[in-house]
Request: fold
Amino acid sequence: MEAYKQEFIEFMVESQVLKFGSFTLKSGRQSPFFMNAGAYVTGDQLHRLGLYYARAIHDNFGDDFDVVFGPAYKGIPLSVVTAMAYHELYGKEVKYCANRKEAKDHGEGGNLLGHVLEDGDRVIMVEDVTTSGKSIDETHPIITAAADIDIKGLIVSLNRQEVGKGGVKCACDEVSDKYGFPTAAIVTMSEVTEYLYNREVQGKVLIDDAMKSSIDAYYEQYGAKA
Reply:
């Protein structure tokens, strides 16, 4: 596993973004882990988060894009910090774009923030985590109607690797199948489990034998088929 992925896993834990225990998800599933990207709140955390996204984009998609798009609301800061970090790491100037939940009817108007999409723009979409693909279903028609763009891919911070709406594949794969662009993640939950199993982070072992058994049982029930 690449060093930046290991660092990112520890970063999620240290930022209290990734927690282990017993959590009821929006889907109603009882999960032994929970991720809340809203816990990234400081300038340093957001800066580091952007750097991890930029590295993962570069690893998975290269430089073949012009715009980073983030679906409202959590995707808005992600698109900004990622565009900044990409320039910092790779010297490439990319633009950010995000959508408004409600179209603005004054000033410049419209339902997009940042860069005004143009024909030929090559776009990378960024999200925190995709569990159902709902935000992509909402925003895909908005940005494809705005201009004749080329969506190069979607990147999330954590691929939970559990079945999406279709009950067979994970949500990221469902998005890829539906819209025809590749998806990737900074890390997958299997990488998180492998790295944290019996490893101390901040003086605690978060995935001991008991937690590992809980995670394994969860994926027996909800894990996506490869």
In short: The chain is about 40% helix and 25% strand. Helices lie at 3-14, 43-61, 75-90, 134-146, 171-179, 189-196, 209-222. Strands lie at 18-24, 30-35, 67-70, 95-104, 110-114, 122-127, 150-159, 183-188, 200-201, 204-205. The radius of gyration is 18 Å.
